[in-house]
Design a protein that fits this description.
The structure is a homodimer. With about 325 residues, chain A is α/β, with parallel strands linked by helices. The first copy, chain A, folds into two domains: about 5-130 and about 325-334, 3-Layer(aba) Sandwich (Rossmann fold); about 130-320, Dihydrodipicolinate Reductase, domain 2 (2-Layer Sandwich). Chain A contains eight helices and 13 strands. The first copy, chain A, has helices at about 15-25, 75-90, 130-145, 165-180, 210-225, 255-265, 285, 320-334; strands spanning about 5-10, 30-40, 45-50, 50-60, 70, 90-95, 125, 150-155, 230-235, 240-250, 270, 295-300, 310-315. In chain A, the strands form two sheets. A seven-stranded mixed sheet of chain A has the order 3-4-2-1-5-6-7, sandwiched between helices. The first copy, chain A, has a six-stranded mixed sheet with strand order 9-8-10-13-12-11. The longest helix of chain A has 17 residues, at about 130-145. Chain A is globular. At the A-B interface, strand 8, helix 4, strand 9, strand 10 and strand 12 of A face strand 8, helix 4, strand 9, strand 10 and strand 12 of B.
């Protein structure tokens, strides 16, 4: 009989937590026992798992006895507070927050990108930021073939990146604008309905946001490319739950769009959607609830005098590949 | 007494035409006589100009007798069909379509960028594509100071770029999605509400769209920089009427964000909105109905090992600077 695991989901009622539970079920993860953990506010409520009601428990330091794998998506502060008791209980923490991603003894993993890094974990494995995960699923196979040198990224990030409250605010605010009612932004810094906000996470002294620098630093760590050059502009748009990215890529070696398509068609976790004449290209509506990242608009960068540049557009479900799916895939690797 | 002109607006009932009439009024253009021209369908209806009702006439070959300036925004085919009779009538055609932009004897003008090119017009002056106009208002002053070499652009284009029917479809489709009703895309190739479409205008054999190549070719012409390198990814997002652009710029010479801000603060047609700590940066809602292009998120490109790179984010009203305002400004130059 195959081994089964006791799995805890910390932050089970959040947008990512809900998708983690669904993904464990859909991918038939060998769950012996599922513990749903949340704040006292949600304790006593139930969530469905494989047709049965599972009661949500308040998360305490004693929640992790007997747990094999703890999927965390309750914010960085909660992850930091519980790290020791999870590891002491002998569980492996797979953390969706940014709290430990850049720590030297915490592997940061996308299974399609750097599964080998799972070997050196010491009880904590980090899930990368959603935009990094979505980008690298498509870019890592190209890097392995041609050597990635520089990336210029502009993102089109969905409301789901701000959690369930972000999606609710987009819907509510859109209704208010359509009805001519006043709005009051809360989840976002400004009005998002029928507009955009070029600001995600806080600003650093160099003018970049933390969100933008995560893409650089996390990519360097996961690709083992400390010299990688990358600039990013992260923009929130009024899309619902899939992130898109416009990527301008420079490689060490020449690469044609045909080669890139062949590489991506053979790569796990990527679906090539690239037939412009048939109006086929990646779009958030098509990426929503899909495990794969969609890649398309693949073309030779005409702003270079050589064939070492590609432009590519990707869309991926922020809650799945950007968060819940990737965490469950890491658990599968274990 | 100052000279006054007989001005015709061809395509007066379209999204851009309406803004042309409003802009002529708001900027107090010296109009002696205003002729509003449209298809037979709209003939007989009226539009307000300076408090008075002006009757819309059906456009015919005889419409341009006595006209000094004809502002065209009725599509490229109409512009081509009427070019000869407008010029023969002695009027100057200022055309918002892409029909003549790349012709050698047609100047393509943004008054803040290349006003000197108006000297060599032969009866037709072209208005650039909206994304080119919005970009160059901010980029041309930096180019003059530091020598522009290469641009990597990703756009966030509003529904207004598809005209009044584009804005109406965004509103109607958004309502339908919120109400769980079926949708039927017409103005756009796919669903735009709560999503995006990385496809504007038709595709060329190299995988770029015409829209993306316009930015390259029109920028080269207007900046008199035939060697300029530029790649663009044009994306329609569910914003209403201001376009935004994420621009990665490479210059011949070093340029710091402080220098760039100082140059743009002194430049006509640009408002610098760049105080991240106060959550101030360009956004479509703030650019809407503004004459100026908003520029912000100005930072040194960290993906380079020198100081010749800048990242910048701009938003501009697509119907105004991207179309109607620029046409009227060209008329003012005349």
């Amino acid at each position: 009989m195959a081994k089964e695991f006791t799995v805890a989901v910390a932050g089970a009622t959040g947008a990512v937590g809900v998708e983690m539970v669904k993904t464990l079920e859909k991918r038939n993860f060998p769950v012996k026992n599922l513990k749903l953990l949340a704040s006292a506010r949600s304790a006593g409520k139930t969530m469905k798992f494989k047709g049965e009601d599972v009661v949500i428990e308040e998360m305490t330091e004693n929640s992790f006895k007997g747990v094999d794998i703890a999927l965390f998506s309750a914010g960085g502060d909660i992850s930091k507070a519980y790290r020791k008791c999870v590891v002491d209980a002998g569980a492996v923490m797979i953390d969706n927050s940014s709290a430990f991603r850049m720590e030297d003894d915490v592997p940061l993993i996308v299974p399609e990108v750097n599964p080998e890094d799972i070997k050196w974990h010491k009880g904590v494995i980090a899930n990368p930021n959603c935009t990094t995960a979505i980008m690298l699923v498509a870019v890592a196979p190209l890097h392995r073939a041609k050597g990635l040198k520089r990336v210029v990224a502009s993102t089109y990030q969905a409301a789901s990146g701000a959690g369930a409250k972000g999606m609710a605010e987009l819907i509510e605010q859109t209704r208010q604008i359509l009805n001519g009612e006043p709005i009051e932004p809360k989840a976002f810094a400004h009005r998002i309905a029928f507009s955009l906000i070029p600001h995600i996470d806080s600003f650093m002294p160099n003018g970049y946001t933390k969100e933008e620098l995560k893409m650089l630093n996390e990519s360097r760590k996961m690709l083992h490319l400390p010299e990688l050059l990358l600039t990013c502009t992260s923009v929130r748009i009024p899309a619902m739950r899939a992130h898109s990215e416009s990527l301008n890529l420079e490689f060490e070696n020449e690469i044609t769009p045909e080669e890139a398509r062949a590489i991506l068609e053979a790569a796990p976790g990527v679906t090539v959607v690239d037939d412009p004449e048939k109006k086929l290209y990646p779009m958030p509506v098509d990426a929503t609830e899909k495990y794969d990242v969609l890649a398309g608009r693949i073309r030779q960068d005409i702003s270079r005098n050589d064939k070492r540049g590609l432009d590519i557009f990707v869309s991926g479900d922020q809650l799945l590949k950007g968060a819940a799916l990737n965490a469950v895939q890491i658990a599968e690797l274990l």
